[in-house]
Amino acid sequence: MLGEMAAVLSCTKAAVDLTKGMMSLKKDVDIQAKAIELNNVLFDLQQQLMNAQLGQMQLVERIRGLETELAAQNELKKLQERYALYRFPTGTYGYNLKPEFRGDEPDHYLCSGCFEKGQRVTMHARTTDYTSTMTCPQCKNVIEVDHPKDVPPLTVTWGY
User: Fold this and answer.
1) Which of 31, 111, 147, 159 could link 136 by a cystine bridge, Cβ 3.0 to 4.6 Å?
2) Shared-domain flag, residues 61 and 109
């Protein structure tokens, strides 16, 4: 960006110098030659100004992208502050909403793998007669959240 500005100033100075030089000329041929030279310098000046403007637009776009990225990171940080890592009795982990943030929101758990990647994915619970599991709909991770209940002994009866 500084290089473009230096080039713009250099071209502007050359145009001013040529204009001053044209004032001292007496012959039409000399004036015409200097006018052509001035046009070339003005064209270079225009090119340098366009390059500087393009550089500025690229910087503005970069700033806009960084601002968007920063806003997303701030939102993720706010989300992460609302949840705490929870250890289920089976030794598996999930994230649970901290009590001070619950309000009317129902108790729920987030997938630890997805949460650590910046995604808020609520796990789906499933309970059978013998165990309770939670499944992440995003990464398909299944965790056992409750130890199997006592399984009744298998009784085999014979047909006789």
Assistant:
1) 111
2) no
Could you list the residue range(s) of the whole structural domain that residue 115 is in? 88-146
Q: 57 and 25 in one domain?
A: yes
118-152 confidence digits (pLDDT tens): 888 989 988 877 778 898 999 998 888 876 665 55
**pTM exceeds 0.70, yes or no:** no
- End-to-end CA distance of the chain, in Å? 96
CB 4 within 8 A of CB 52: yes
* Cα–chain center distance at 52: 27
Same domain, 73 and 93: no
Q: What is the CA radius of gyration of the chain?
A: 36
Residues shown for the chain:
160
| 73 lies in the same domain as 92 | no
CA angle, residues 47, 52, 58, in degrees to nearest 5? 125
User: What total of structural domains would you count in the chain?
Assistant: 2
